[in-house]
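Journal club side-thread
Mid-discussion, someone asked how the predicted structure for our own chain would compare to the paper's figures. Pasting it here so we can look after the session.
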Amino acid sequence: MIEKISIKEVASYDSRGIEVNLSKINYIYGSNGTGKTTISEFLRNSDNQKYSSCNIERKQGSSAFDLFVYNRNFVQDNFNIRNEIKGIFTLGKESTEILTLIDEKLKGAQRHQERIGNLEKNIEEKEGKLETLQSEFVDQCWELKQNYDEVFEEAFTGLRNNKKRFMERCSDEATNNNSDLYTYEELKNRVDSVYKNSREKVRVIPEVHYDSSLEKQSIFQTKIIGKKDIDIARLISELNISDWVQRGHRHMEDSNGVCPFCQQELPESFKEKLDEYFDETYTEQIQNLNSSIEKYKRDTFGFFEKYNFLMTEDIPYINKEKITSLFEIINLTYKENTQLLERKRHEPSRSIELSSIISYLEQINSEVDRANIQIIELNRVIDNIKEEREVLTKEIWRFIVEENKSHYENYMSNFTRENSALVGMKRGKEEQKTHKKRLEDEAIELQNQLTSVLPSIHEINMLLKSFSFTNFQLAESAEQGNYKIVRRNGEDANETLSEGEKTFITFLYFYQLINGSNDQDKVNTARVVVVDDPISSLDSNILFMVSNLINNLKKKVRSNESNFKQLIILTHNVYFHKEISYNKGRSNKKQPDEIFWIIRKTGNISYISRYEENPIKNSYELLWKELRENSNSITTPNIMRRILENYFKFFGNVDINEIVEGFLDDDKVVCNSLLSWANDGSHHVNDDLYVDSSQEQNTIYFEVFRKIFINSNHESHFNMMIGNIVNEVEKNEANDEAEKEIQEALTQVAVGKE
């Protein structure tokens, strides 16, 4: 069944549109041009793009159904200038047992459909639980991501703005990541070198080398003195004045035999003895000492120049502060050693031992080695940056998996349990669908044994005959499964049918169609029927026959054993509406399975009103009610014409022409305009006639309409029937005034807020 239809943004329905809640049997009344056909055509062609803003809401749990719609477009589609008419397959009446079996199988299929409906409801609830579980897990994963996003953002690339994808990655890594587990600090320390390095390799720091033998040259410990077997050697040695004598010996060359220290004349051969004392060996040792001192200074100074970069250059991973401190100590040691060496130079007989810098160099090399390890690792990472990134990324996700472990295990436990139940429900649904299809297929096989187009030909011809349409009938076409319309003599009659004949046989065709199908496999499907104004161009006696067919259809809809599930009737004819909506013994009270609606159009906008009881008590009262409620409608002139016809011709027994003669010429023209339609519509059921009119014209018509009653001495009847207009106008004015006051108050509040 259809639970609700929404119509908007099409034809005369604006963006607000209308919503029509439906029951089993639905009556929708409205004058021509108010928008009824738009509703029926939407139901007939809901897939059409022009109805994209409209909607059909099916009742939850209801089984599938076929929708049959009768309206003027159905007539055009099924009865055009072609002679062939598609046949209607209906069940034959040869085998009661087979029909009973078909019914049992279809009822069995319906039971399976009910189970499918229950399973679908349970599946929806279970899917809702799974969505809730997943939503909670998504939030837990996202919170974890936010905690580590600043440091591990590179590992989260492509997932940092998508909660669901981040959760899916967490789940995937939990089952597939076998990387080693590292601490947060360990991973954090590697992030810069892998993700944020300069991408330029760093030169390895050369090892610091120093010739330690420079400090241990034997000449520094050697006491350099003269030749010992010279007679003065014993005295020099005892007095330990070798260095003093040696300095004096250097100055003797320019002293002319005078002692350079005391200025006394030196003994003869004293110079020769000194020359012999400071012999060639002594000279060689002095030269060796001097060269060794210069080598120590030169090489040590070269050492400082060579490794000065360790203090001046910005080298990654090196402890510059410590290196600088060590070099300062080495430099002080070097200065102390040079002072010792200078003393040795002046006092060659002195033995000295230099302070070693080797221990400090070892410390420097230790720092260099530590830095080089990191530099080598950095260079290796740069050489293999792609692989290193992949490795680090997996290790970071391994860390995330461990952090998320409790949430993941809880989620998977609940998800597995709920999903297992869901899988079982879906499997059960498919099994029910399989059983349902099997029963439906079996029913179709049985139907194929009995279905034929011949019973529908017979039924339609019987109806035509009973309604006195005897000058044409249906016959089976040469094309199997089709009909043709023929005259009594067998000639084709399709192109020569009158409008009334065409309309009536089309409705009979539709009536037979809803009891069968153009498709042999769909003879017994559930169905919803929509009938839109089936009595246009028909005489009044046919109206009652059509009404009788509709009332029979209502009985089928109300029967739980029938495949007719819902009926929607739209009409503009009050007589037809009254015939089909009349409930014997229940007056105008509606039955529980009925809903009444009236469509109206004001300002070229259609709207709909729902009634709890039949709003059409009788046609004459309805016309006055329409005039009271829609005095400025485009249908107002038609309403006034029909009131005049009903009252003066059938109730008032007044000669209408005499009334016209009592008007002035100007009013007489307007009066004739109103009465001409009434004369034309005498003695048969009238279709509404749409005449475009303005509000000003309606006012003129209404004034003449009122004068007709006054001039015919029926003013009291006019006042009685129209009296409610004054009350309703006053009520509307009061409502408008109240609404205006409320609007002003709201405006003041809004201004106050601003």
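Post-session note: Residues 91-95, 677-692, 724-736, 745-754 have pLDDT under 50 and may be disordered.
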